[in-house]
C-alpha cells in the first residue's frame, strides 16, 4: 500500500518527512518510491535519461535507494516572472503558460499525474506521495492536482505535517482538518508535529489536547535537526540568511531575481562563509564571486546591469578575485547574448559583462539541454587543473561559442587565459569535493589562512541520520501498517544499522 503526506502550509517539512520515511522503509528492506504530482521550484535535477524533475524528488529517491525517474514528479513548474511558468511534463519541456491558462488544463494534468503514480506503484510496490503547499486551500479545491483532487483520485491514507516552530500549531492542524472536504477528512490517519525546539516531553499535554480537539492521532513530535540535505525552493534560500561557518573565506553568490539551482553551493556553505547578495551589493572584500544559474538570463542580466554589477565584477577582476559563472551566470560573463525570441519574446542582442570572450545564442525553437555529465577540468590557472574529474548535470537553453578561449572542462565551458574567470553549464560542480577543495585551497593560500581539505561526501550517512532521527520520534509501527506485502509483512524485518 502507500500513503500521502500533506502539510498545513508551505515549508512545514513535507519533503523532509517523505525523505525520512523513504529512508526508514529502505532500512527495513522495503522498496518504495517518492512521488509529487506537481512541484513548483527552480531547483531541479536531471535523471539518467535526461528528464528534469524537482530536486526534492531526486533526493527522496536516493534516500529510498533507487534512481530518480520522471514519473516521480510528472509536473514541474519553473516560474519565469510576470505570472508565467515553464511547464515541464514527465521530464520534458511542455510549454510556457500563464497561471490562468494552466488551470484550464487541470483535468489533463491530473490524468498525467495519476498515470505516473500508477506506473510507480506497479514498478516499486509502494509509493510515498508528497502534497504541495497547504492542504486546505479551499479556493483551489476544484483544480488542486497536488493535494485534494489527487487524494480523491488515489484514496490513500493521509498524514498531516505541521510546523510548530512557526507557532499556532493547534490552529494549523485544527483549521486544516476542519476545512478539508467531507470525503477527504476521514482519510487523515495521523499528524506529525515538525521542527520542535527544546524538550519534546514538555509538549506531552499539547499532544493530548490536539488529539482531543481533532480526534486524530499524533504520530510523533519531531525535534528540529540540522542534517545536510539539499534545499527545495526559494523559501529555503531565505533560511540561509545569517548562516556562518566561522571561515575567513568569503564567497559572494549574486542572488539573481530568478536564481535557479542554488543547491549548487551548499557544500561550499559548510566550509566557507557564503553570502547570497542582492544586485547592487558592493563586492569588495569577497574572496570569490559566483554568478549562479537563472530561469531567465536576459531579464536577470538587465537587472544586474541596472545595478552596475558589471562594474563591480570588473573591479573584482582587477583585484585578482576569481569570478565564476554557472549556466546562466556563464552566459552573462560573455560579451554578448543573442536572443532569437526564446528568452525575451522578441529578437534582440544584449551586452554581457565581457569578462569572457564568448557569445551565447538562444535560437528559434523550444529546445532544452538536459543531460548528466562527467568531465575533467582542463582549464588553465591555479584552480581548474586541481579539480580533476567532476560530475554534474546541464539544464539550459541556448548555446555558447567560446571562440579562442581555452575550455574549462573537457568538451565544455570557457576560461580566461589565467584561469581566474571561468564559466560552465555544469550544475553540481561544487557538490564535488575535488572542485570545492581546489577553489578553497587557492582562496586560503591567497588570504594566508590554513586550509583543511573537504572529505568525500557520504550521502548515505546523512539519509541514515535523518531516518534514525525520524524513527526515534515517530511511531513507526503505526506507519508500517501502510507498507506491507503479501500476508501483511515487510519483505525484510531486519533494520539496517
UniProtKB/TrEMBL annotation:
The keyword Ligase applies. Pathway: Cofactor biosynthesis; adenosylcobalamin biosynthesis. It holds the Pfam family GATase_3. The active site is at 327 (nucleophile), 427. Residues 4-225 form the CobQ/CobB/MinD/ParA nucleotide binding domain. Gene3D superfamilies: 3.40.50.880, P-loop containing nucleotide triphosphate hydrolases (3.40.50.300). Residues 250-433 form the CobB/CobQ-like glutamine amidotransferase domain. Keywords: Cobalamin biosynthesis, Glutamine amidotransferase, Ligase. One of its GO terms (biological process) is cobalamin biosynthetic process. The keyword Chloroplast does not apply. One of its GO terms (molecular function) is ABC-type vitamin B12 transporter activity. NCBIfam families: cobQ, PRK00784.1. Belongs to the CobB/CobQ family. CobQ subfamily. Catalyzes amidations at positions B, D, E, and G on adenosylcobyrinic A,C-diamide. NH(2) groups are provided by glutamine, and one molecule of ATP is hydrogenolyzed for each amidation. This is Probable cobyric acid synthase. It comes from Methanoculleus bourgensis (strain ATCC 43281 / DSM 3045 / OCM 15 / MS2) (Methanogenium bourgense). The lineage of its organism: Archaea, Methanobacteriati, Methanobacteriota, Stenosarchaea group, Methanomicrobia. The gene is cobQ.
Amino acid at each position: 500500500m502507500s500513503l500521502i503526506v500533506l502539510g498545513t502550509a508551505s515549508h512545514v517539512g513535507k519533503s523532509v518527512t517523505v525523505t525520512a520515511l523513504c529512508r526508514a522503509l529502505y532500512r527495513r528492506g522495503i522498496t518504495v518510491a517518492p512521488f509529487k504530482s506537481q512541484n513548483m521550484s527552480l531547483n531541479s535535477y536531471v535523471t539518467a535519461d535526461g528528464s528534469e524533475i524537482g530536486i526534492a524528488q531526486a533526493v527522496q529517491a536516493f534516500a529510498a535507494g533507487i534512481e530518480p525517474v520522471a514519473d516521480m514528479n510528472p509536473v514541474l513548474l519553473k516560474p519565469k516572472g510576470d505570472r508565467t511558468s515553464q511547464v515541464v511534463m514527465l521530464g520534458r519541456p511542455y510549454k510556457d503558460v500563464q497561471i490562468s491558462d494552466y488551470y484550464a488544463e487541470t483535468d489533463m494534468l491530473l490524468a498525467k499525474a495519476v498515470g505516473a503514480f500508477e506506473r510507480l506503484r506497479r514498478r516499486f510496490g509502494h509509493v510515498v506521495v508528497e502534497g504541495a503547499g497547504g492542504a486546505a486551500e479551499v479556493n483551489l479545491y476544484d483544480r488542486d492536482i497536488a493535494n485534494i483532487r489527487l487524494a480523491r483520485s488515489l484514496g490513500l491514507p493521509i498524514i498531516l505535517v505541521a510546523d510548530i516552530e512557526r507557532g499556532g500549531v493547534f490552529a494549523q492542524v485544527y483549521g486544516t482538518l476542519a476545512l478539508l472536504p467531507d470525503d477527504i477528512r476521514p482519510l487523515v490517519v495521523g499528524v506529525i508535529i515538525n521542527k520542535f525546539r527544546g524538550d519534546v516531553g514538555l509538549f506531552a499535554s499539547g499532544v493530548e489536547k490536539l488529539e482531543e480537539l481533532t480526534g486524530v492521532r499524533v504520530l510523533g513530535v519531531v525535534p528540529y535537526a540540522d542534517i545536510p540535505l539539499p534545499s527545495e525552493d526559494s523559501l529555503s534560500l531565505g533560511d540561509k540568511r545569517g548562516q556562518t561557518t566561522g571561515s575567513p573565506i568569503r564567497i559572494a553568490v549574486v542572488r539573481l531575481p530568478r536564481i535557479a539551482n542554488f543547491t549548487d553551493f551548499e557544500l561550499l556553505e559548510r566550509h566557507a562563509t557564503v553570502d547570497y547578495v542582492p544586485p547592487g551589493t558592493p563586492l569588495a572584500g569577497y574572496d570569490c564571486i559566483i554568478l549562479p544559474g537563472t530561469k531567465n538570463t536576459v531579464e536577470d542580466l538587465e537587472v544586474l546591469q541596472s545595478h552596475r554589477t558589471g562594474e563591480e565584477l570588473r573591479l573584482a577582476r582587477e583585484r585578482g578575485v576569481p569570478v565564476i559563472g554557472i549556466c546562466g551566470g556563464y552566459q552573462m560573463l560573455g560579451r554578448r547574448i543573442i536572443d532569437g525570441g526564446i528568452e525575451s519574446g522578441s529578437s534582440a542582442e544584449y551586452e554581457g559583462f565581457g569578462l569572457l570572450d564568448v557569445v551565447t545564442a538562444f535560437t528559434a525553437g523550444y529546445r532544452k539541454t538536459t543531460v548528466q555529465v562527467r568531465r575533467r577540468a582542463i582549464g588553465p590557472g591555479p584552480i581548474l587543473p586541481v579539480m580533476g574529474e567532476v560530475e554534474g548535470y546541464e539544464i539550459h537553453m541556448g548555446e555558447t561559442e567560446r571562440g579562442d578561449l581555452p575550455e574549462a572542462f573537457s568538451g565544455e565551458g570557457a576560461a580566461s587565459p589565467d584561469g581566474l574567470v571561468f564559466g560552465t553549464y555544469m550544475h553540481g560542480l561544487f557538490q564535488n569535493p575535488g572542485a570545492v577543495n581546489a577553489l578553497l585551497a587557492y582562496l586560503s593560500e591567497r588570504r594566508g589562512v590554513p586550509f583543511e581539505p573537504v572529505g568525500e561526501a557520504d550521502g548515505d550517512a546523512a539519509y541514515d541520520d535523518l531516518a534514525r532521527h525520524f524513527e526515534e520520534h515517530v511511531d513507526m509501527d503505526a506507519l508500517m501498517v501502510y507498507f506491507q506485502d503479501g500476508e501483511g509483512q515487510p519483505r525484510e524485518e531486519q533494520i539496517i544499522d
